[in-house]
Design goal:
The complex is a heterodimer. By secondary structure, chain A is mainly α. Chain A is built from eight helices and no strands. Chain B starts with a helix and ends in a 31-residue tail after the last strand. Classes of the chains: A mainly alpha, B mainly alpha.
Chain lengths: 184, 417
């Protein structure tokens, strides 16, 4: 146990340092390298918690795929401190309306799902009673990968959906920020 | 000692042995490659140092060790020094989950289990671990190219990043077909499942294996996919500014990656350390494994001596428009087979599907090729040329005026435009 505690603090320090590096480095490539270190540290955290599968996926997706694309773009463009483009033109009225309507529907259904108690019940069913040992629960489901799949598709479909909504918002934000101002 | 302590000791010792074996294999792969390529090109190859040139790797290592390790003035020093190490680190650690033999062949006590012949033991996400680690390989190359402060290095590095990212997708998808048959991510489990089903996955997944093979060659940047190192265009790509031991670190990682993808092919598609129910000669488990891997390595060398380098745009188009759709189709078909067909017949239905697709593909390609190579007269100049070169502007040549008829002899020299 003492070993785990020491490993946790060392890892935590490394994570915080690399996280600070992301915002403190002037050179975009070094920031990105810090971000990669940070993601690898997170993978080690998952490993420390016994989440072998999630740790592997963390390396595979973030360090292996996403950051490679970042690296590709950053090294190719070698961005300097250029001023950002002019702000994009305003939305159309119907866009505001449609966006608001969809947001209300989404928020409403999520609130209903949360308050009805179904989410908490499912999470308990999938994640096991916190009182019991996690290792026994994982073993009862037949292994790390199986436990993860069961939890993801049975208990944690709610946070999963919320995360995907967040990702869509992020993509839209990137499109809005990145597009050039129209000529007219 | 406790079980945990035994495991730690065993892992360290096994890691040391594996690293030593891999580095030796790397050194002698360079010799084998040079001799084999020389033989294919009717040359002799290195045969002066020791009997049959067997000490050549030693001489090369000494030469490399004493060469100047040049650092360009515009290099980012820290990254420049770390990048080759990243490459080798990733290549070595990817090998950790390759199973060289069964646990049972070494006994079943806790101590014997700790000494089971794969470096990291039986990891239950072994294949994912391997894919995750090898997806980091691209960093060594891109960082090396970027930190050199040289445009050619950077271009080579970016090409390689694009190539590796593109072909990684196909590797994952083609392996997923075999995984569906196996039903496990553990490398040992995959081999056991092949023994259990009585069929190698190369038979159940012939299309998946071919796709994996092509993508794996591209993934380790070997000929004919060695675009990052295209001499005519990019000097030596990301390797341009590296010399001495740092250069040989990159070479080392390339060869170790070759060994790893060969081991993966042997494990997932060819039953790993087993041949049928036989799992080793005289209790030594890794004989079959080594033989299989050596055959794959020979194919790597053979390919390099045979095929010309593919052009960059064709490489990308091939990866995204041919390999990836085929891999997805294979995955979907495998899912359908695994769901609908009874277990005993699954492998053979898979064989039927894979061979059928490949036959149809070959047929379509042959027909297209005939159309492309068939000579048709170009209306304007009256020159008989294959379809495929119709769009190329015909350069005036200095051949003597042709006489006689026929596809070859019918070419008339077009007037200078």
């Amino acid at each position: 146990m003492i070993g785990t505690t020491i490993a946790f603090y060392v890892l935590a320090a490394a994570t915080l340092l690399s996280g600070a590096g992301v915002v403190l480095f002037r050179d975009a490539v070094y920031s990105m390298l810090s971000l990669i270190c940070n993601l690898l540290c997170l993978a080690l955290f998952f490993l420390l918690l016994g989440g072998l599968f999630i740790a592997t996926i963390q390396v595979l997706i973030y360090a292996g795929a996403v950051m490679v694309l970042f690296l590709f773009v950053v090294t190719m463009l070698a961005p300097d401190a250029q001023a950002a483009g002019t702000p994009a033109p305003g939305r159309q009225i119907w866009q505001w309306g449609a966006g608001t309507g969809l947001a209300v529907i989404l928020a409403g259904s999520l609130i209903v799902a949360l308050t009805s108690g179904a989410v908490a019940r499912d999470a308990r069913a999938a994640g096991g009673d916190p009182g019991n040992g996690l290792a026994e629960h994982v073993a009862s489901l037949g292994g790390n990968v199986e436990a993860f799949g069961y939890a993801l598709f049975h208990g944690f479909s709610f946070p999963f959906e919320v995360t995907s909504a967040l990702l869509v918002v992020a993509v839209l934000g990137a499109v809005v920020l990145g597009r050039r101002a129209s000529r007219s | 000692m406790s079980t945990l302590a035994w495991q730690i000791v065993a892992t360290i010792v096994k890691g040391g042995i594996a690293i030593f074996a891999l580095l030796t294999a790397f050194a002698y792969m360079t010799l084998v490659e040079r001799r084999v390529v020389a033989r294919m090109q009717s040359r002799l190859g290195p045969n002066r140092v020791g009997p049959f040139g067997l000490l050549q790797p030693l001489a090369d290592a000494l030469k490399m060790a004493f060469k100047e390790q040049f650092v360009p003035a515009r290099a980012r020093l820290l990254v420049f020094l770390i990048a080759p190490c990243v490459s080798v680190f990733v290549a070595l650690s990817a090998f950790a989950v390759i199973p060289l033999g069964d646990t049972l062949t070494w006994g079943s006590g806790p101590i014997a289990k700790a000494w089971a012949p794969s470096v990291a033991g039986t990891l239950n996400v072994g294949l994912l671990y391997l894919l995750a680690i090898s997806s980091l390989a691209v960093y060594g190359i891109v960082l090396g190219g970027w930190s050199s402060g040289n445009r050619y290095s950077l271009l080579g590095a970016l090409r390689s990043a694009a190539q590796m990212v593109s072909y990684e997708v196909s590797i994952g998808l083609s392996l997923a077909g075999a995984l569906m048959f196996a039903g496990t991510l553990s490398m040992v489990g995959i081999v056991h499942e092949q023994v259990h089903l009585g069929i190698w996955f190369v038979l159940a997944q012939p299309l998946g294996f071919v796709l994996y093979g092509i993508a794996a060659v591209a993934e380790v940047n070997r000929a004919p996919f060695d675009l990052p190192e295209a001499e005519q265009e990019l000097v030596a790509g990301y390797l341009t500014e590296f010399s001495g031991l740092r250069w040989s670190l990159y070479q080392m990682s390339e060869y170790i990656n070759m060994i790893t993808v060969s081991s993966l092919a042997a494990t997932v598609y060819f039953g790993g350390w087993t041949i049928g129910a036989n799992s080793g000669i005289l209790g030594v488990p890794f004989v079959w494994y080594v033989i299989k891997v050596f055959i794959f390595l020979f194919v790597f060398i053979w390919l390099r001596a045979t095929l010309p380098r593919i052009r960059y745009d064709r490489l990308m188009r091939f990866g995204w428009q041919v390999l990836l759709p085929l891999a997805v189709a294979n995955l979907v078909a495998t899912a359908i087979i695994v769901t609908l067909v009874p277990t005993a017949a699954q492998g053979w239905v898979g064989l039927l599907w894979g061979v059928g697709v490949m036959l149809i593909g070959t047929l379509v390609y042959a027909m297209r090729r005939r159309r492309m190579t068939r000579a048709v007269p170009v209306a304007k100049s009256g020159v008989a040329l294959p379809d495929s070169v119709r769009l190329v502007r015909i350069e005036p040549t200095v051949l003597p005026a042709p006489s006689g008829r026929g596809v070859g002899g019918d070419v008339r020299i077009p007037p200078r435009s």
